[in-house]
Amino acid sequence: MSAKYDDDTIIGIPNWITDDRYPSHDDTIANLITTISPQTRQRTRFFFDKAKSIIMQGYAPEEYKRVLIYAYAFQSYIDEETPSGVVTELTNPYINS
């Protein structure tokens, strides 16, 4: 199972996210995707696409990739028995606050 959809130019990032002002987010997503299970990647990518209209209404375009990063991280935190270090680094500040 892959987080790549047919129209994704970059694995795990929907093409409707067109803001390229933060290319480091692409690297963060690529790194994150390699540390989470295929099921989590697929589930997160599916729900992120289904939430497209809500995301577009609630966030500025420059925030879409950041929202996607946290969507992957928190879904992994929920799904995985032992989340990766990348995941815990992203989620712990919110969970432990």
Could you provide a short overview of the structure?
The chain is an all-alpha fold and 97 residues long. 62% of the residues lie in helices and 0% in strands. It is built from 5 helices and no strands.
Global structural class: mainly alpha
Number of DSSP helices?
A: 5
Shape: globular
Query: Strand-residue fraction?
Result: under 5%
Order of SSEs:
HHHHH
Mean pLDDT: 87
Kindly, what is the distance between the CA atoms of the first and last residues, rounded to a whole number of angstroms? 34 Å
Largest sheet: none
Query: How many DSSP E strands?
Result: 0
Helix content: 55-70%
Unreliable spans are none
User: What radius of gyration results from the CA coordinates?
Assistant: 13 Å
Please provide a written account of the structure:
This protein has 97 residues and is mainly alpha-helical. Helices cover 62% and strands 0% of the residues. It is built from five helices and no strands. The chain is globular. 28% of the residues are buried.
